[in-house]
Amino acid sequence: MSCAGCGTGGDGKPKGCKSNGGCSTGGCNRLNVFDWLADIPLSDSLAPFDIIEVSFNNGSRKDFYRNVTRQLFEKGEMVTVEGVSGFDVGMVSLTGELVKLQMKKRRAEDTPEVKKVLRRSSTEDMHRMEENKRREREALVRSRALARSLGLEMKLTEVEMQADGRKATFFYTADDRVDFRELIKIFAAEFKVKVEMRQIGARQEAGKVGGIGSCGRELCCSTWLTDFKSVNTTAARYQNLSINQAKLSGQCGRLKCCLNYELDTYLDALKDFPEDADTIETASGTASLQKRDIFKNLMWYSYSNSNKLYPLTIQRVKEIRQMNRQGQKPDELKAVEVVTGKGAKEADLGFVDVVGQISLRSLEKNAQKRKQKDRDKQARQQSQKGGGQQPQGGGNRGEGNKDKQRQRGDKEKQNEGREPREDRELRGEQREQREGRERGEGRNNNQPRGDRGGNNQPRGERPQQQRPARGEQKPKGERPPQQQGGDNPEGAPQQGQGGGKHRDRGPRHRPKQPQQSQQQPKKDA
């Protein structure tokens, strides 16, 4: 994009304010002036003013020229004007009646000695100007080296070549007077041009270099400020600014010019404050003035033995000064209460700090309720998928399941940190098996050798095992003996019994005791 007065190239980038029209915002050239009289028509009896303002080197230098060609030049056009022993090429920066005001501001007179505009710049003039402008960078570097070799205390800032290459102007800064007569001879022999030395100040140097100020905008000296007034630290004191050289200095190293912009407003506001109130006497001691607040009309005082500040109104300070003249001292200062806007904003927000008011137990309860609701929902879905009608008491059964789940959750909370129930049952079963094994070993050792593993029942007679009645539990630790097959001859060896060479090995081959969980009979449905 480009501004309204600039043309745009094929690649989308602005071409600038060459011959495409002027830029009225000051973004392209330095020290631009907005022509607010350009759209106002003149009467028929009045002819347009014949002097125009031409800027050189991107607005760093401006001069006035008489238009003797009787051609109408617009802002932004390139023109060829008279120079020193030749011609120069510049850009029209201002035309019309506003040029009179600019000449009056710069104290330039309309005399016949004013230089003339020769013509519109041709292609040859522009090509020649570009060639000589390329020499400026090399000339600046070489001139600095020559000045350093002569030991001159000066700083060369800029070199401006004339469009035809016959003259060169060297801008420099120096604290003291410099004798550069020998330097001019060396420059003339080195660059083959007519040499002009022009001394400028630190502020003019910053305006030529350009830059961005601490406010975020372009420097005033490079955009619109032409006359530089002296600035001292008194202006900062009137505005209650801390005397910090780093913050009050600009890019040029001097105090910022903007310190003078609001100085008159502060001086007008300070007229209502008493001038002889630097110190006031009270019963607690002498209070010294620290600052004046022109926005709230308050004067801040503090005691020498304390860092606390006491804001007083102008009327209260005048009353204390009147009492001091009469030899009286007030008991207290009667400082006013200053209400800042920040506190009012906080009060309007209505924010309440609830940190620590929400406990984790309430969050856990809510989580448990949500989980219980999810379980109930899943149970209902499963019952609906199963189909059929629920038997009577189904609702009570669902409520019973809920109660059981709640009891189970309570038991799990109580048993947190205890040993799991399965581990306790397993150890109890192992202990019972070990005790039963020991009892069996003692019983087998007391029996005769022939009765240990044999079966003393006569052949063909098999004792019938008595099954326990339904609902009746088997005695713990007892199990009926198991026999293989049907009829077994008397004295024949059986599994786990000694016969012939194989003798009964005692308790080692005894059947294992059944586990407690397998001995519990099933209840009737």
Overview of the molecule:
The strands form 4 sheets. This protein has a 5-stranded antiparallel sheet. Strands 11-12-13-14 form a 4-stranded antiparallel sheet, covered by helices on one side. Strands 8-9-10 form a 3-stranded mixed sheet, with helices on both faces. A hairpin with a 5-residue loop joins strand 1 and strand 2. Among the domains are: 99 residues, no CATH class; 72 residues, GMP Synthetase, Chain A, domain 3; 47 residues, no CATH class; 48 residues, no CATH class. The protein is built from 15 helices and 14 strands. The chain is an alpha+beta fold. This is PSP1 C-terminal domain-containing protein. Pfam families: PSP1. InterPro entries: PSP1-like, PSP1_C. One of its GO terms (cellular component) is cytoplasm.
Itemize the secondary structure elements and their pairings.
Blueprint: E1 7-8, E2 14-16, E3 51-56, E4 61-66, E5 78-83, E6 86-94, H1 98-105, E7 117-120, H2 123-133, H3 135-149, E8 155-161, E9 167-173, H4 181-191, E10 194-199, H5 202-209, H6 220-223, H7 233-238, H8 245-248, H9 263-269, E11 279-282, E12 285-293, E13 298-303, E14 310-313, H10 314-325, H11 341-349, H12 360-386, H13 394-414, H14 421-446, H15 516-519
Parallel strand pairs: 9-10
Antiparallel strand pairs: 1-2, 3-4, 3-6, 5-6, 5-7, 8-9, 11-12, 12-13, 13-14
Helix pairs in contact: 3-4
